[in-house]
Amino acid sequence: DAGVIQSPRHEVTEMGQEVTLRCKPISGHNSLFWYRQTMMRGLELLIYFNNNVPIDDSGMPEDRFSAKMPNASFSTLKIQPSEPRDSAVYFCASSPRTGSYSNYGYTFGSGTRLTVV
Amino acid sequence: GDSVTQMEGPVTLSEEAFLTINCTYTATGYPSLFWYVQYPGEGLQLLLKATKADDKGSNKGFEATYRKETTSFHLEKGSVQVSDSAVYFCALSGTGNQFYFGTGTSLTVIP
Q1: How far apart are CA A36 and CA A114, in angstroms?
Q2: What own/partner pairs with CB < 8 Å and gap ≥ 24 does A82-85 have?
Q3: Contact B104 A43 (CB under 8 A)
Q4: Does residue A14 surpass a pLDDT of 90?
Q5: Contacts of residue B6 in chain A, CB cutoff 8 Å?
Q6: % chain B with pLDDT above 70
Q7: Which residue out of A4, A91, A102 would a mutagenesis test of the B interface target, given it has the greatest number of B Cβ atoms within 10 Å?
Q8: What is the mean pLDDT of residues B100-110?
Q9: How do residues A51-76 score in pLDDT, each as one tens digit?
Q10: Mean pLDDT in residue range A93-113
Q11: How far apart are CA A63 and CA A83, in angstroms?
């Protein structure tokens, strides 16, 4: 099992450019989560999907952020236009299932370190 | 709502010292509890979990016991190594469809 695969590992872009982060969850996992991690705010849940359907996007900071999951094996997080304050590490995680009192852990990818200059 | 509170860091210990990282939770019902570890430059990895009261999760010499009476899930290790230097996150799976993570505790072990 290759685990959760994220690409790219590092991204440096100029303010105003579009950025697309990619995630391949573990095969058979029905739930996918996008997180953002910064020193100031810690780990923040941005959005999560269940069976490819977005369930809760209340953590998406602004309309500049969008996420899609066109099929069970691929998801993207897009920032357009990007701003310096978007600089962070973005993690994707997947889980076999989610729900109240779930005892299934999350498997995290290695993250994408985004720097907007 | 559901939440997790863990001790502030950073924590610095000498090799072979005893480690405790405190974690308390607020939740209705019977949440599952987890500890995750994040090594530098990597994602979070599941370290251990417990799914009901009095359960003890253990892995790699780390242990944590689910204490419903004190709403706690403290992480312990009897003898830390330099390789244990990382950030540790307590997490809860409760009534919502997501996990609730603590703010993380940074541990540095010096030789």
Answers
A1: 10
A2: A82/A13, A82/A14, A82/A15, A82/A16, A82/A17, A82/A18, A82/A19, A82/A114, A82/A116, A83/A15, A83/A116, A84/A15, A84/A116, A84/A117, A85/A116
A3: yes
A4: yes
A5: none
A6: 98
A7: A102
A8: 95
A9: 999 999 999 988 999 999 999 999 99
A10: 85
A11: 13
Quote the tokens at residue A31: 């739930």
Torsion of CA B99, B103, B104, B105, to 10 degrees: -150
Tokens, residue A102: 């779930």
Task: Report CA B53 to chain centroid distance, whole Å.
Answer: 16
Beta strands in A8-73 (DSSP E): 10-13, 19-24, 31-38, 42-50, 53-56, 65-71
Q: Which residues of A touch B (CB under 8 A)?
A: 4, 33, 42-43, 45, 48, 50, 55-56, 91, 93, 98-103, 105-111
Q: Which of B49, B45, B37, B47 is closest to B93 using CA atoms? A: B49
Condensed to tens digits (0 to 9), the pLDDT of residues B47-94 reads 999 999 999 999 999 999 999 999 999 999 999 999 999 999 999 987
Count CA within 13 A, CB hemisphere, residue B10.
10
